[in-house]
């Protein structure tokens, strides 16, 4: 019989694939018990319901308090594909919230996810990498990823994975390598990234250049970058059409040019003209990085004489609205006009 | 006011008032039940006995005259039996009064017949016809499902007609509902969009920060590199300078040392030479030769000669001694006069030796001469000249030594 009262719940049996939710606070504990049941259908239905609930941060908090992560961790190794896919999706939705991220770090979910890197199902892998990506955005999360020893497998995956997942891996790597770079260098990350710099997709090129930027910001990372002759490739990327790629490539060069070998190889690759072009563009994201790179090159005598002719480009930069750019331009001019 | 009762119903107070049931006091029942563990010395009154056997319950013909029970105690069965017998006797003794007839006797020639006057005739007979009938359901048949019970329609059908515009205006009424629906949806959507925008803003902020950080970091590294180069350069120059100073110092020291040494050694050579000269390093070869070779040889020859002389003298001494001893022996027969001669004879060879030595001149000529001269003498008297020779040699040697 139709009632004039509007119910807070959806009409019953709207979706047979989802488990029925208990009222109020009892919903999540009941789902937890259903997750632990032995029957496959119950588990799947509970997971579907969970994925819907986890969009709400309060539910995420409650779920973590109850101890959902233990049952989810246990389900990660389930033989059924749907179960694994939904589990990883639920974990990904949890990691979108800050509470969820904290909970994931505390319960050591990252190390439990390492087994899923080789999962045959694509969606599971994609969700797993999305989780790593979200976690790596936090400093503690990045530390957790490093501690779980995930860098070598991720670097190895660079060669074999699909494109979308590759973007996620590159993002994760760029956040993690900001902290520590030794493991990645040991697994030959620089060579793998050099290949990706010539990938047809612009996003991958940009992200690969970003990872190289992070690697070369560490002192021990600069040497392999110079040795493996990445600099000529980066110089060629300076003329790429995508501005993000240009910005990342310039940034990577900026760090790599600190070493003397880097500078000499950059001069050999004739990096100055493209860099000057980037500096001249007013709205380029790469402007700041290009100015810095040219400052570094100006410390070489050959660089200085070439750049003495182009000081007017730097003078134009002094009108940029960003203060950082102004300062960078001033230091560049100082470096160019320095006499020993 | 009470309704007046018909006079025949009122009973004249012929008898004094009497009770139909004698009043009695209630049994002194204890207020509380005795405790359950108390013994039962007395039989307790049966409160709820069998109603069929309860004496208080009137039994039998309803219109019978009944006397109230005399005592409240339950009577034993014998007493009851007696009472029953008494009653029966009474009944037999006093036959019933004839029942007043209701209907008059029938007229002659007529009979009274009983007739039923109810609506439906009833057959009165002793034996009621009874017929047994039974029915039984079939075995093993399932009970069929109960048919849907639709109660018969009761009540009257009434219809109403709703005119246009009487009930409600849909457009007006639906507004709040729609507002709520759409409002909620839009609000939810806006929230989500805001969240996404916030996230995008945060990301953009993060990216800007990262860019800034990278730029600053690069600057830092560049300056570090510069600093390192400059420091290295400085270090190198400093080391060079130190090296230069050190070399300079060394050179000055060397010069000073050289000058000092030169001066020190300036008179070294003369002193060296003088020392050497003094210690005999510079020598006249002939003189040296004479000194080293000739003179030792000379000395050895002289020594030899002198030794020969000494030998000769010793021989002479021994000869003289033997001679003297023989003479002493020979003269021991004449001991007294010979005793004085013995010491005189002993004195004689010693005197003779210096006298003989006094005659010698230069050592060479004497030695050679003496040898020549002494040799033929030695054949005759080998002992004497031989003894004299060593003595002469000896003396000559000593004289030579003195001259030297």
TrEMBL record, chain A:
Domain of life: Eukaryota
Pfam assignment, any one: HEAT_2
Name the UniProt record assigns to this protein: RSP14 protein
Organism: Piprites chloris
UniProtKB/TrEMBL annotation, chain B:
Listed InterPro entries: Radial_spoke_3
Pfam families the record matches: Radial_spoke_3
Chief site of localization: cytoplasm
Subcellular location field: Cytoplasm, Cytoskeleton, Flagellum axoneme
Region of interest (Disordered), residue spans: 1-25, 68-107, 334-404
Gene Ontology cellular-component terms listed: cilium
Keyword annotations: Cell projection, Cilium, Coiled coil, Cytoplasm, Cytoskeleton, Flagellum, Phosphoprotein
Basic residues composition-biased segments: 84-95
Coiled-coil region: 213-262
Highest taxon above the source species: Eukaryota
Biased composition (Polar residues): 384-404
PANTHER family hit by this protein: FLAGELLAR RADIAL SPOKE PROTEIN 3, RADIAL SPOKE HEAD PROTEIN 3 HOMOLOG
Family per similarity comment: Belongs to the flagellar radial spoke RSP3 family.
Protein's name in the database: RSPH3 protein
Species, as recorded: Piprites chloris
Lineage, highest ranks first: Eukaryota, Metazoa, Chordata, Craniata, Vertebrata
Originating gene: Rsph3
